[in-house]
Design brief:
The protein has 167 residues and is α+β, with helices and mostly antiparallel strands. Helices cover 52% and strands 16% of the residues. It folds into two domains: 84 residues, Arc Repressor Mutant, subunit A (Orthogonal Bundle), CATH 1.10.10.10; 64 residues, no CATH class.
Length: 167
């Protein structure tokens, strides 16, 4: 079954750009490796399709393609990357959790879930400092935290347990 190569290229570009911070580039070598790994083909065999995809993504402002001083291409998220993300991941509302303070009321901790977090930044920093004072205890306690996270404990509960271990 012949796959639409332009769609495959778009999908691989999206999969590689999505987890990158907004200030990071997707380098050509990383795209080549991901494309070969996921499709079993060499991206350099599809340069016409790459050009067409680049034009489409730039026109929609989903991504920007540019060239590094050494001549290698790079790709960065465009102004409308969030719209592309919405179209590529229908049914999900957001993959990002932004917390600007560890002390607040009704902090969003999941889709439709909020909780009160009453930990000051000073308490958090104090716990981090205590963690460094006893590395063996920290290793054991961090292992316990890792187990809690694997069980699905929320962000707020994880921070609370962290403070309890080291606070």
């Amino acid at each position: 079954m012949e796959r639409n190569m332009k769609d495959a290229i778009k999908k691989v570009v999206f999969m590689k750009l999505q987890p990158l911070p907004d200030n990071k580039n997707l380098l050509w070598a990383d795209l080549q490796i991901a494309f070969e790994r996921t499709t079993g083909q060499h991206i350099n065999d599809h340069l016409d399709e790459i050009r067409a995809v680049a034009e489409e993504l730039e026109e929609a402002e989903y991504a920007r393609f540019s060239t590094l001083p050494n001549g290698m291409p790079r790709i960065v998220k465009g102004l409308n990357f969030d719209k592309w993300e919405d179209s590529m991941t229908p049914g999900t509302t957001s993959n990002h959790i932004n917390i600007s303070s560890l002390s607040g009321q009704n902090v969003q901790v999941g889709d439709g879930n909020t909780m009160n977090v009453n930990i000051t930044p000073e308490e958090f920093l104090s716990a981090l400092n205590k963690m460094h004072q006893n590395p063996e205890k920290a290793k054991t306690d961090l292992s316990k935290l890792h187990e809690y996270v694997k069980m699905g404990v929320s962000l707020g509960e994880t921070i609370t347990k962290f403070i309890a271990f080291f606070g």
